[in-house]
Write a structure and sequence with these properties.
The chain is of the alpha/beta class and 292 residues long. The protein has one domain: Rossmann fold (3-Layer(aba) Sandwich), CATH 3.40.50.1820. The chain is built from eight helices and eight strands. The protein has helices at residues 2-20, 110-119, 149-170, 187-198, 218-221, 225-231, 246-259, 275-288, and strands at residues 58-66, 71-79, 91-95, 127-131, 180-185, 205-209, 234-240, 264-268. Helix 7 (246-259) links the parallel strand 7 and strand 8 (264-268). Helix 2 runs parallel beside helix 8 (275-288) and helix 3 (149-170) packs across helix 4. The longest helix is centred in the middle third of the chain and has 22 residues, at 149-170. 46% of the residues are buried. Bound molecules: 3-(4-hydroxy-3-methoxyphenyl)-2-propenoic acid (FER). 3-(4-hydroxy-3-methoxyphenyl)-2-propenoic acid (FER) binds at residues 10, 13-14, 17, 97-98, 146, 149, 186-187, 212-213.
């Protein structure tokens, strides 16, 4: 019952958010969008289980000064196994959902997933930065989290102007777009699509997992088809087929298919709006980035 009410509340909010969104979503965009999904391939058993006998990465919390927000903000950082300060690494910025903060992604055990992928030679050694995407003074997920819609948009400037320069000053990382990726779940998926496609000089790889109604319209995300084709290296999405937010991903996928923009959208069978889908997203996305 509680869940039903929550679902109804979320649905209601998404309709409101859709209508309130700049650029407009033309009101109700909830109906199923006709789209051809990319093949779903099951992740191997144990991909998210801690494995003995392999080297493990580490997790730490960092703090940076945000000129955008005017506060000191936190981010969680994963350093890969056998991290070597003398080596240069690429960076994946991994963004959370509307009720989360810089620790939400830990529920999806990104450290375990990446430790396993790296041990199997299936992903490049990378640093993962998990910021707080609610760029406002009180960035805790308190009260009505849906009221923080604007703060999620404002994070674009905190990310580009404050966090990335901080990370690049603190760690020995590459500073070019081919070594930066952005992906996220739900609100963070919308942010990743919005920011990643608006800043193709910053991020070559963009991932949206169960992207939320903050996802801009395709025409806003891709105002210049030829530019996106030339400058984006990876546009990758996944969403559960039981997730009411599918239309945000399907709308973009349909646009891309209609305009010849390479784009992946996997429909996770039986997938809901939860970490089953998001772990699967990270498992797959991580294998596609930073590889020549
Ligand atoms: C909405 C439905 C879902 C919405 C945001 C979300 C602001 C985000 C969900 C999440 O991040 O998990 O209507 O509008």
């Amino acid at each position: 019952m509680k869940k039903t009410l929550l679902t109804l509340a979320v649905l209601g909010c998404s309709v409101l958010a859709a209508q309130a969104q700049p650029g407009g979503m033309g009101g109700f965009q909830m109906p199923k969008i006709d789209v051809t999904f990319d093949p779903y391939v099951e992740a191997p058993a144990g991909f998210d289980q801690e494995r003995a006998g392999i080297p493990h990465g580490t997790l730490e919390t960092v703090e940076y000064k945000s000129t955008t927000v005017g506060t000191v903000r936190k981010a969680t950082v994963y350093l890969p196994p056998k991290f070597d300060a003398a080596k240069k690494y690429p960076v994946l910025y991994l963004l959370h959902g509307i009720g989360g903060d810089e620790r939400e992604w830990l529920q999806g055990v990104p450290n375990v997933i990446l430790d396993n992928l790296i041990a199997d030679g299936k992903a490049a050694e990378m640093i993962i930065v998990m910021p707080n995407g609610r760029a406002q003074e009180n960035d805790r997920a308190e009260g009505n989290v849906y009221a923080g819609f604007q703060a999620f948009a404002n994070f674009e400037f905190d990310l580009i102007d404050d966090l990335i320069p901080f990370i690049e000053g603190k760690f020995n990382v590459y500073g070019d777009k081919m070594h930066r990726a952005v992906a996220g779940l739900s609100m963070g998926g919308g942010q990743s699509l919005n920011f990643g496609l608006a800043h193709m000089d910053v991020f070559a790889y963009v991932g949206g997992f169960s992207s939320a109604p903050n996802t801009k319209m395709p025409e806003e995300l891709i105002p210049d088809v030829e530019k996106t084709k030339a400058e984006n290296t990876l546009l990758w999405m996944v969403c559960g087929n039981q997730d009411n937010l599918m239309y945000n991903s399907a709308r973009l996928k349909a646009f891309c298919d209609g305009h010849g923009v390479p784009c992946t959208l996997i429909e996770y069978p039986g997938g809901k709006h939860d970490f089953v889908v998001w772990k699967y997203g990270l498992y797959n996305f991580a294998q596609l980035i930073f590889r020549p």
